[in-house]
Amino acid sequence: MTALHAATAVRAPRRRRAAGRALRWAATRVAGAVFVLWAVATLIFFGIRLIPGDPAEAILGGPGSRATPEALAQARAEFGLDQPLFTQYLHELGRLATGDFGTSYALKVPVGQVILDGLGSTLILTVVSLAVAWLFAIALALWATRGGRVASAVSTVLEIVAAAVPNFWLGTILILLFSVGLGWLPAISTPGIPGLVLPVLTLAIPLAGFLGQLMRESVLNALDAPFTVSARARGESETGVRLIHALRHAALPAISLSGWAFGSLISGAVVVETVFARPGLGRTLLSAVLIRDVPVVIGVVMVVALVYIVVTIATDLADRFADPRLRQKGGDR
Amino acid sequence: MSGSAGAPLLPSPVGGERRPGAGGGERGPGLREPGGRASGARRILGHLHSTEIVGALVLLLLLVAALAPSLLTATDPLGIAPADAFTPPSPGHWFGTDESGRDIFTRVVYGARSSLLIGVAATGIGLVLAVILGSLAGLGPRGVDFGVNRLLEVLFAFPGLLLALLFITIFGPGVATSTIAVGLATAPGYARIIRSEIRSIRGSGYIEAATVLGRSPAQIFRRHILPNVAAGLFALATLGIGQAIVWAAALSFLGLGAVPPAAEWGAMLSAGRTYISVAWWLTFFPGAFVVLAAASATVLGRSLQRRNRER
Amino acid sequence: MSERDAVAMSERAAVLDVRNLRVAFRSGRASTTVVDGVGLRIEPGQCLALVGESGSGKSVTARSILGLAGDGARVSADRLRVGSHDVLTLGNRQLRAMRGADVGLVLQDALVSLDPLRTVGREIADALRLHTRLTPSERSARVLQVLAEVGVPEPHLRARQRSGELSGGLRQRALIASAIALEPSLLIADEPTTALDTTVQEQILRLLERLKSEGTGILLISHDLAVVSRIADTIAVMTDGRIVEQGPAAQVLGDPQHDYTRRLIRAVPAGRPRGTRLAPTPSTLVPTSPTAPASKGPEPLESDAIPAVSVLSTGFVHLAAAGRTVALEARGLSKSYRGPDASRRLVVDDVSFVLERGRTLGLVGESGSGKTTTARLALGLTAPDAGTLTLGGAPWSILRERLRRPERRRIGAIYQDPLGSFDPRWNVREILADALTSGRGASGVGGSVGGRAALARSIAGLLDSVGLASALADRRPLHLSGGQRQRVAIARALAPDPEILVCDEPVSALDVSVQAQVLDLLDELQRERGLSYLFISHDLGVVQHMSDTVAVMFDGRIVETGPSADVFARPAHEYTRRLLEAAPRLR
Questions:
Q1: By three-state DSSP, how is residue C578 classified?
Q2: Quick check: C353 pLDDT over 90?
């Protein structure tokens, strides 16, 4: 009759229920991802129709190209632009679902090929940047919580750097310092490790400032929490308290935000790849935007959305792994 | 677009939710007896106070530059003097001159206007959209909240400036489109903050207390929800201006916003990159002012947020 | 054996020996002394209880013994010995070797006092890892053994769970296990039962009692004299950083010498007949400086400035005049909520009660028994799935919100957390002005000059009736003490001149002496205004003192109800009996 007995009675099916929860969580997430991808594709498809002017003209090189009516008609037929809008939409969805992004207006090669050419380089850049930012952030958080005037000044500076130093300027300054000034590293991102250093730093420093600031705050909270008092009273050293207890709590918000951070890194790659003349998805996207190569823009944006969604699910998974409390609650955050 | 650009969207990492003395005579072990951390808190507060003043001064100066640039410089921002090309920073030209001999200092001063204007306008657009979406989700029935949340999720799938780039693809580059684009791109983040703010206020004890007193939903909205959200909104707007300045400069830098020879910081920086090995000042100063403007807006916005919390 | 040898013997025997302990905190250039000349002595198998209210310095004392007073603390003492260690001369490494091995610490709430991200097994094993050379498998064997010792059933399962997955009682046992894994000769327990339900509290106290009988010396820190009287051999009463009285438990409780001790004992509501004052009469209270804001940390001793309140000698005049009409009646109320895994949980199950006008109905039960949901139903904040509520005989729960709203002024509420119930932008004046104008359409605050003056008078009157100085009107609740906040909450509830107040754990967050003042105030207001109270609390003593009728809730049902005196004297239901047995009382 006590609550205690009741708890013992329901414990048996607990494991099964936990499995059910995990399954339901996964199903919700996958369904959500599919929905978002569909919505993104739809949004882009109809958004693109808002572009003033004739798409066929764009295919043939813009209004300046003075294409003949025959050529325009041919281009329309070739790209299915003479079909009713809804048919075009269904076609588009069907093609996207099979991974066919069409043909680049400018390059006249399949968009899938264009994307594959740039994707690897951009993923390397962003993943390495994320890893470096995490390392910096952990070091900063642990160091800046030692207390004192310096630490609080550091935290203020971090906050400002994270929010106010744009990548394009940071990259330029790094080039001025290490390429033009000291001549240590190439200003143009060549293949290989040396060419990666400056772009990675450009992306990682502001992100590290942001993550570090976030972690600093949660380390401080954890160091204030009763469980660290318990740990100290057990004989744990300050280092032990930080490494065993505080760091794990500090990592939680940073893990949750890593999906967002990865997305902002991909978007930051547009700038960084331009600054360092580094081939990649970002530069591909930028040049496509500049010349309105619509299939390439759609393709890149769709791929980025897909990558972003996958990474978000991955961070949610990591979140649930790092924080068992999340596993007990329902699927949603 | 910078890895940082979204940072101000998130709740302030500094200061924390530690309400001073929440519960004067509560029982339990006095975890925080007098002394200890209180002195630290005061030191941080005092520390921020001076940065606040600096931030406000910088913004004020930029405002003067934006409204009356001729007060700060007598030179013409577009005036060419080929003989003076590539003069390094010197008493005559504080920030040096560019490839056509135009005075960088003058151009930076005149650039304040377009940067601030874009920052304010883009933030305005973003916040208006966000307030509409956020209050629909925060105040509306569950179905509306669900719908808005899905829409926000879709918009979040365009990380950073991607939404802005898409918008520019559709409507073409230029100052106006890039301003709207930045506003659009920042709206989802704000909307989510506003929604959760409204939700948390709606769930708070004082709303229940007002209901018990017999206040109608309309009165509760007017007397409690609106003013409490508005206080946070003002801080959010200040932070947003800093962020929008950075983003707009990034678009100009990419050649999608203002175009050289216009005196705009991002465009100046972009143009100066050609001469990076011979004239560092062409890129350094415009960028430094982007940082200065964004940093001071961030500092002010953060301290506003802190004050809201500590009241 | 010479006298000197005897002294040496006893000194060797003590597990804790503190003389003239002083702790001061530096903040900037100023220095605040929070512990001033404390002396304590505990021998093996003895329990010394350190009793005091928040801010008295008792927790700092405990932490100083462990060398954990904090960075800004200056600790000095003529003697500070734990067993054979001289704490003040130990270096960091030696201190760490002492902590956990020679002295264990148990804090208030295991939910946050054990790392919520780690299993309790690992938390307990940490102590072994730090102090012994046991292999991992030996460690986990010992962990299971300790868990079994503290009475955790199925230790191999529990060891793999985290504090959040365990019930309050089990995780508190796990916390104790982590403190005694190395069998320290001294256990410091800082409010070890404060967050627990009455019956669970009893179990934990029994566990501490057993540890004591096995030879562990215990320093028990608590705000609650009744809890302490259960197991303490010696009681030390602390206030303002000093120990004002110390002696054998029976002597301190039975024949208190110091005025503060007497006040504390008097403030305990358990067993005090209804209508008797718990706090000294207001005139004997010395108001502390009203400018000390709560944000400076807990105040030394809560004593709100109270202008003289006339104590009605006539007693329950209004009651007689009012007859026995019904203020609020519930019939067959049920309410269920959907849980996180889509299962419905019946929170309130067929609850019926009658609240008579001018009287108090006490609703007592442990956490999760459905008390708060019942309060929300009574306030019309949530609609019952089944059953009805009537307010003064008229329909209430079935009314549509639009029709109910004008009637809301008749039933007010005060909560456990008054601070959260105030709009953070408002000061006391604005809060009260809002409440005063709430029933009068949308006109808002003060239209005409005359209206404004009348409003100001009403505000001053309200503040006066709850014993607050009108100078406090310009303060924000954040800058008030806990007791003052609750008084403001009461003033707000009184503003629309209600018939009924729903009081949901109104004193649970307050220190004993402040609790006494607030309870006295509620009592006076009831007599003056003929209010009816639905008084909800987990604290049997408080309910007994306040109620005419009592309803005992368990698992969403009212298992027993009747006149307060009857229920407490002759409990009929088994659960009530268990609750009463477990309730700590002064003995």
A1: helix
A2: yes
Q: In one letter, which amino acid is C197?
A: D
Distance from C-alpha of C537 to C-alpha of B66, rounded to nearest angstrom: 63
CA-based nearest distance C532→chain A, Å: 33
What's the rounded mean pLDDT across residues C365-378? 89
Query: Mean pLDDT throughout B187-199?
Result: 90
The domain defined by B47-310 folds into MetI-like fold (1.10.3720)
One-letter identity of residue B65: A
Mean of the per-residue pLDDT values of chain C: 83
The average pLDDT across C260-267 equals 88
Q: Which residues contact C83 (CB under 8 A, 6 or more apart)?
A: C15, C102, C103, C185, C186
Confirm or reject contact between A129 and chain B (CB < 8 A).
yes
Given pLDDT bands bounded at 50, 70 and 90, which one contains residue B206? very high
Has residue C285 got a pLDDT over 60?
no
Between C216 and B68, name the one with better pLDDT: C216
Peptide bond into B261 cis (omega under 30): yes
pLDDT band at B37 (very low <50, low <70, confident <90, very high): very low
- C498 chain-B contacts, CB cut-off 8 A: none
CA distance C576 to chain B (A): 26
Helix H or strand E segment including C148: helix C136-149
Q: How are strands ordered across the β-sheet holding C394-395?
A: C344-356, C326-338, C386-391, C394-395
What is the pLDDT, as a whole number, of residue C448?
55
Size of interface B-C (CB pairs under 8 A): 179
Question: What are the residue ranges of helices labelled H in B77-225?
Answer: 104-139, 142-156, 162-171, 175-202, 205-212, 217-220
Instruction: Round the average pLDDT of chain A to a whole number and report it.
Output: 80
Name the pLDDT band for C351 (thresholds 50, 70, 90): very high
Question: How many angstroms separate the CA atoms of A197 and A129, rounded?
Answer: 9
Residue of B202, B213, B306 best to disrupt the C interface, most CBs of C under 10 A? B213
Q: Do A224 and B37 touch (CB under 8 A)?
A: yes
pLDDT > 80? residue A146: no
Whether the CB of B170 is below 8 Å from some CB of chain A: the reply is: yes
User: What is the per-residue pLDDT across B127-168, written as a single tens digit (0 to 9) for each?
Assistant: 999 999 999 998 888 889 888 988 888 888 888 788 888 888
Q: In chain A, what residues touch C116 (CB-CB under 8 Å)?
A: 227, 325
Both structure tokens of C402: 């639009």
Comparing CB atoms, the residue among A2, A231, A248 nearest residue C117 is: A248
SS (HEC) of chain A: CCHHHHHHHHHCCHHHHHHHHHHHHHHHHHHHHHHHHHHHHHHHHHHHCCCCCCHHHHHCCCHHHCCCHHHHHHHHHHCCCCCCHHHHHHHHHHHHHCCCCCECCCCCCEHHHHHHHHHHHHHHHHHHHHHHHHHHHHHHHHHHCCCCHHHHHHHHHHHHHHHHCCHHHHHHHHHHHHHHHCCCCCCCCCCCHHHHHHHHHHHHHHHHHHHHHHHHHHHHHHHHCHHHHHHHHCCCCHHHHHHHHHHHHHHHHHHHCHHHHHHHHHHHHHHHHHHCCCCCHHHHHHHHHHHCCHHHHHHHHHHHHHHHHHHHHHHHHHHHHHCHHHHHCCCCC
User: What's the one-letter identity of residue A86?
Assistant: F
Domains and CATH numbers, chain C: 13-99+219-266 (3.40.50.300), 321-582 (3.40.50.300)
Report pLDDT for C352.
92
Q: Which residues pair with C21 in a beta bridge?
A: C38
**CB distance B158–A40 less than 8 Å?**
yes
ipTM of the complex: 0.78
Lowest mean pLDDT across A141-150, A174-183, C426-435: A141-150
Strands laid side by side in the C103-106 sheet: C103-106, C186-190, C217-222, C47-51, C234-239, C242-248
